């Protein structure tokens, strides 16, 4: 698939997907109150982290595995990847529901728990497989449309019933996600094949431990950011941070989509054009990151006020923008360089650095400064990851030259 078409296909679909929650998000704080707003955000935060755990690193390595696999072996790869994730899913659902209930504001535990379940189920997505194949259209029918319909109906229910019907939104999402996952899976393999071969699933999971660890540790300061800020700040300040976080998540989705679209392309034809394509990937991510930084810094306060009633201040917006730029660049340096070099452990090491910087910084500064402190912690984490990966790339190149 040509680069322009690949980028358009795989970036447009997730970008639309990132906009879908805005069918309901502006309604939540207005119709259901700040407690429900924070509860849903906590469920999304915990569920987002556990979805990364369930995904077993396939969001990072999956497209490359599919792109490099022989055509006749791809269906079996899909089946093994799905079975392995099912093994992790059920304990993750329990942990997510309980943790979200405990972290949620009083009286909103059920809403948070259901949302955590819905988002955790998203770890079973087939997007990694479709990206590797270069065929994005099934994502629309099996993931995008069902979730859009569920979100729209949930928004209507909340408008009608206020805080008493917030639970309908995550419940409808659960139905949509499960239906979409099963619907696409049966097109690739008979569903009964997903219930056998558990030993091979365990072996597959073991091979993914490095990539899964990378995603999980990264999630400690990205997906769990809202939960960390909720622990350290008041409900009002946590609500403000959530306002900025929702825009950050949209940018994160677009960056991840571009990263996914380029990942298989960079290593196509057995890495025959790797050097040139890696440089082009870095340039494209730099452009995307700078765009995100400028948009956040310039429009963030106004846009959050317009969408969510209470807007973030300029410093908070700038920190989210810096985090967006650093995330875009580390997506390129990590996925398109280090992983393409066969060095996922270096990517894991870089996100460990990010977690060690980001988690205590976010927690401590959120307690002292509220929403702005949480955003400083997020920016510090993403900047640490990028700097660590740049150092690793330079050291690897120097070692290769002297070998």
From TrEMBL:
Tell where it localizes.
Answer: Cell membrane
Q: Does the keyword Transport apply?
A: no
Q: How does it sit in the membrane?
A: Multi-pass membrane protein
Q: Mark the transmembrane ranges.
A: 7-24, 36-58, 86-106, 112-132, 144-161, 167-185, 281-303, 315-334, 346-369, 375-395
Q: What is its main location?
A: membrane
One Gene Ontology term, aspect cellular component: plasma membrane
Read off the InterPro entries from this record: Poly_Biosynth_Transport
Query: Which UniProt keywords are present, listed alphabetically?
Result: Cell membrane, Membrane, Transmembrane, Transmembrane helix
PANTHER family (alphabetical): O-ANTIGEN TRANSPORTER-RELATED (PTHR30250:SF11), PST FAMILY PREDICTED COLANIC ACID TRANSPORTER (PTHR30250)
Kindly provide the name given to this protein in its UniProt entry.
Answer: Polysaccharide biosynthesis protein
- Natural source organism: Microbacterium sorbitolivorans
């Amino acid at each position: 698939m040509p680069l322009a078409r690949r980028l358009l296909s795989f970036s447009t679909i997730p970008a639309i997907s990132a906009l879908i929650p805005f069918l309901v998000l502006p309604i939540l704080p207005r119709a259901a109150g700040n407690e429900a707003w924070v509860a849903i955000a906590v469920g999304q935060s915990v569920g987002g982290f556990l979805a990364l755990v369930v995904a077993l690193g396939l969001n990072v390595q999956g497209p490359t595995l599919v792109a490099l696999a022989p055509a006749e072996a791809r269906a079996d790869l899909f089946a093994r990847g799905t079975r392995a994730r099912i093994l992790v899913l059920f304990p993750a659902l329990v942990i997510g529901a309980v943790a979200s209930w405990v972290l949620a504001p009083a009286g909103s535990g059920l809403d948070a728990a259901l949302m955590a379940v819905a988002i955790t189920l998203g770890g079973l997505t087939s997007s990694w497989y479709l990206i590797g194949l270069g065929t994005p259209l099934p994502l629309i029918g099996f993931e995008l449309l069902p979730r859009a319909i569920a979100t729209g109906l949930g928004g209507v229910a909340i408008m009608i019933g206020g805080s008493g019907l917030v639970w309908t939104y995550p419940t409808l999402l659960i139905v949509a996600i499960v239906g979409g996952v099963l619907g696409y899976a049966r097109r690739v393999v008979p569903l009964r094949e997903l219930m056998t071969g558990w030993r091979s699933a365990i072996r597959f999971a073991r091979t993914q431990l490095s990539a899964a660890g990378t995603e999980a540790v990264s999630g400690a300061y990205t997906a769990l950011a809202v939960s960390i800020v909720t622990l350290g700040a008041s409900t009002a300040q946590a609500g403000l941070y959530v306002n900025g976080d929702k825009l950050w998540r949209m940018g994160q989705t677009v960056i991840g989509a571009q990263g996914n679209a380029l990942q298989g392309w960079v290593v196509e034809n057995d890495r025959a054009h790797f050097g040139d394509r890696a440089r082009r990937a870095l340039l494209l991510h730099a452009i995307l990151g700078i765009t995100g930084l400028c948009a956040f810094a310039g429009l963030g306060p106004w846009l959050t006020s317009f969408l969510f009633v209470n807007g973030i201040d300029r410093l908070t917006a700038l920190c989210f923008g810096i985090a967006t730029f650093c995330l875009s660049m580390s997506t390129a340096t990590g996925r398109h360089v280090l992983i393409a070099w066969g060095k996922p452990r270096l990517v894991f090491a870089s996100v460990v650095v990010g977690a060690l910087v980001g988690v205590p910084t976010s927690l401590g500064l959120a307690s002292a400064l509220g929403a702005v402190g949480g955003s400083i912690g997020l920016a510090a984490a993403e900047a640490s990851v990028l700097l660590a990966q740049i150092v690793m790339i330079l050291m690897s190149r120097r070692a290769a030259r002297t070998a």
